[in-house]
TrEMBL record:
<dbReference type="GO" id="GO:0006313">
    <property type="term" value="P:DNA transposition"/>
</dbReference>
<dbReference type="InterPro" id="IPR052338">
    <property type="entry name" value="Transposase_5"/>
</dbReference>
<dbReference type="InterPro" id="IPR036388">
    <property type="entry name" value="WH-like_DNA-bd_sf"/>
</dbReference>
<dbReference type="InterPro" id="IPR009057">
    <property type="entry name" value="Homeodomain-like_sf"/>
</dbReference>
<dbReference type="GO" id="GO:0003677">
    <property type="term" value="F:DNA binding"/>
</dbReference>
<dbReference type="GO" id="GO:0015074">
    <property type="term" value="P:DNA integration"/>
</dbReference>
<protein>
    <recommendedName>
        <fullName>Transposase Tc1-like domain-containing protein</fullName>
    </recommendedName>
</protein>
<feature type="domain" description="Transposase Tc1-like">
    <location>
        <begin position="66"/>
        <end position="136"/>
    </location>
</feature>
<dbReference type="InterPro" id="IPR036397">
    <property type="entry name" value="RNaseH_sf"/>
</dbReference>
<dbReference type="InterPro" id="IPR002492">
    <property type="entry name" value="Transposase_Tc1-like"/>
</dbReference>
<dbReference type="Pfam" id="PF01498">
    <property type="entry name" value="HTH_Tnp_Tc3_2"/>
</dbReference>
Amino acid sequence: MAPHGREMSQNLGKEIISLHKKGEGYKKISKALHISQNTVAKKYGSATILQRRPGRPQKLTSRQERLLMRRVEESRHASSLQLAKAVESQTGVTVSRDTIRRTLQRNGMHGYRLRRKPLLKPMHKKAHLEFARAHAEKGEDYWDSILWSDETKITVFGTNGFKTVWRRKGEDFKEKCMVPTVKHGGGSVLMWGCMTGWAPGFSTSGPGRL
């Protein structure tokens, strides 16, 4: 029995795809199959859509994703492997590190290097805030009379290393997204320098504390 209706349409679509894969353009296909170029374009589009397979279903359910996101909020420094093990222990679902990363990225979380900042206790934060409020209205002449100084540590042996953290854009200075630093340790050289509002000052270096 000759094909009819939908079966004929599907066969035509397969023929169009076959000719297109051989490098034939719409014009040559329309002549070979005795149909218009518009029909070729329409049939080719619908035939390729029919051939597409749905993507792989997500490994984690929406409830399991929420559990993962809560775990990340509680422990921003956890690695993807640690998170995968946590999901498995709580849900019984085995997931790969790639699945964890894709799920976090889909929810706006990306891995970044931790920001470093001096370790501040509550008393330090309070003092900084009071200083800022007390000097907020000072004029340029006042600030030009200040001698500004700073120091930095250059590591000679070993490495300071780095860690990653899961965070959203704009969360880089949240406390749980940073790693505190302290000024101690060996195998380093300290550099100290100063400046004013008018000109740079001098600098010096040496081992240990300055």
